[in-house]
Amino acid sequence: MVNTLLISFDLIRQDEIPTPLAIASILAQQRSTNEGHDRMRIEHLSINMLEYGGDACLEQFDPVLAAYDLERFDAIALSAYIWNEYLLNPFIALLRQRGFRGKVVLGGYQITYGRQEELLQRYPDCQIFISSYAEQAIADLPDHLDVQAPVFLNTPVDFPQLASPYLSGALPVPMGAGMVRLETKRGCPYRCSFCAHRDLVTRGVHKHPLEKVFQELAFLAERRVKRVNVLDPIFNAGKEHLEVMREVIRSGMRSTFTLQTRFENIRGEQGASFLELCEQGNFHLEFGLQTTDHEVSRHIDRANRMDLVDAALEQLGARGIPFEVSLIYGLPGQTLDSFQRSIDHLQAKGCSDIKAWPLMLLPGTKLHDQKAQWGMEEEPLGEFRIPVVTASNAFTREEWERMELLARTLVPSNRLEQVA
After folding, report:
1. pLDDT of 16-67, one tens digit each?
2. In 265-329, at which residue ranges do the beta strands (DSSP E only) sit?
3. How many beta carbons lie within 10 A of that of residue 268, not counting itself?
4. Are 131 and 109 in contact (CB under 8 A)?
5. CB atoms within 10 A of CB 303
6. How far is CA 66 from CA 53, 95, 125, 173, in A?
7. What is the pTM of this model?
8. Which of 72, 78, 142, 168 has the fewest CB atoms lying closer than 10 Å?
9. Is 51 helix (H, G, I), strand (E, B) or coil?
């Protein structure tokens, strides 16, 4: 029997379930087969970064780790994301100091899109890298623990057969839970150069069977969940999203559903059906537009169709459908003036809920590789020392500060502390 400890570094806010959906999906899949039960036992430790803060010293994790006999684990798998990147190597060293002698496994966006040579340099004491969706890779860990050379796993997931975190009991939901997460599909059909949602291996969108999605909706309805954040990168891509919305309405769910959507997909007969369903249910739409400047949008392989965007904005306003739009500042070719024009354009079209985020260069993305081309300079900022672009050949550090001030005036908050 292989013993594995799965440690996730999470951003769990008030009223949120402490186990992330991604972790619960791994646990559900491993427990769903007799073979998984017989080969490996997995324990999960969630470290809520919001409780420790970005300035936490490693000794503060000792009371948590003291509950575990680290020497008995054959593998410890750690989640690697941009908000805990600065902590990973010191934390691995701490595990070694506390007696862990097994294999270190890393997975997450920081790993999935990294090149093998770079990963070996960035994480010298990691033996197994998961550069794919993790459900099947974690289940296959026992096959790779005796390998001496570094292992890079990119194991396909059979999505039609993937166990449900909710229906399997891997993710318990208390009655009246404040917020839960749900996905109906994984991956994105678009190729924005800054984004890490796209499956760089299969380049496809993986859909969960509608029957399973409907069963999960029934479960969440029974638990009277207040808010459901749908994690699909673009919910209104394809056709199945209309069936999901119809099921939400048919079931009489009172939950608020947050959907990440794309303006350009709201057109034609399907777009009209989408808007009609939005009016019938309790749906809140989030649009990641990033910029209204056509030239800047081309630089990030997005090329926004502003005629379609404006038409959708007009319909949303006329129907009274709640929505918000997010922008990014620090994009290639962007200036202080073009950022201000994006804000002005949206406000002139009646958008009152605008958010703006600093550009982050994620390893393995096309824009990360174009850093030198655009003269981009990064600085680790905020509580979790997240590297963001603060200067380029299109704007100075001082102009970036003025863009940051504009972003803060849109929604007053410490934006870098809330990256998730």
Report:
1. 888 999 999 999 998 887 666 688 999 999 998 888 766 666 778 888 898 8
2. 283-290, 323-329
3. 9
4. no
5. 13
6. 20, 11, 22, 28
7. 0.91
8. 72
9. helix
